[in-house]
Amino acid sequence: MTRALRAGMWWLATALTLPATNLSWFCNAGTTNLASTGAAMDGAFVFEVGVFSDGFVPTVSNLIEWQDHWVPAQQTNYNPANQRFASVHVVTANSAPFTAGATGWIFGRKTGAASVEWILFRSSSWSWPEPDPFSPFVLEWNAADADQIVLGTVNASGSPFLMRSAEVRSFDQWRGTELAGEPLDGPNDDPDHDGRPNAFEFAFGTSPLIPDASQPAAIDFDAGHARVTVPRLAGRPVHLWVEVSENLTTWSSGPPHLETVVETSASLVVRDPIAAGPLRPRAFYRVRVELP
Fold first, then answer.
1. How many CA atoms lie within 13 A of 256 on its CB side?
2. Rounded Cα distance, 174 and 88, in Å
3. In terms of C-beta density within 10 A (0-12 exposed, 13-18 middle, 19 or more buried), how is residue 52 classed?
4. Quick one: pLDDT band at residue 247, thresholds 50, 70, 90?
5. Domains, the chain, ordered by start
6. Which of 116, 155, 169, 200 has CB 3.0 to 4.6 Å from 196, enough for a Cys bridge?
7. Is the pLDDT of residue 126 over 90?
8. Residue 16 CB neighbour total at 10 angstroms
């Protein structure tokens, strides 16, 4: 055997053992998948698998920042013919931000002149893998396994649908349709004089031109602790929070004053860690909305 031939065979053996992990990410074929309107997802939907950089944790409150931190590893189009998306990403390295153990996500989007649709989800088991030259198995990330859905809806059972995206709408887009021709169209204006500024109407999905006497928040008590529930409309990039005061002058929010119990695309629930009584003889709560 010549030296050149031996060198060629050594190179081939090395190439065949380069470490890699096959990451199969998909949704099951034949499932019902919908846009926010209830129409079937079409081929304009694009799905990506990836991670968020710099330790960024996506929430409904920082929606406007997602695309600044999102780093896709691979992209594929939704196939309406077989009602699925599916691809295999070959992981050959762990260069930042795709470090081993990084939190993995699937991000679906559709961008059009009429509307923008997003869906973001993951399973708590989706940690970014390391290349493995010895594992014959394919790592599977199935949309049906998602248990952390930040925006949109995923039903593991597939009934009445598997995935449904949410419409993402900016305040300016909303103002252009809901307040067209209305001079009082600023975020702090209140053209219907119901005490709810336009920024609140935008966040809650109520009409800015029809007075609404209902309260956007509800208060109940759990073992003496006040709990405030605030509904919100998915896909509205706003910062929403609750404040507490004992004198209507000094207002506080966040720990240690209030604890967040639930924060989803549908609602925000906070709890007062101080129970009503001698240490909390009185308390007032208010909801704040801030546009990005």
1. 1
2. 38
3. buried
4. very high
5. 3-167 (no CATH), 173-290 (2.60.40)
6. 200
7. yes
8. 8
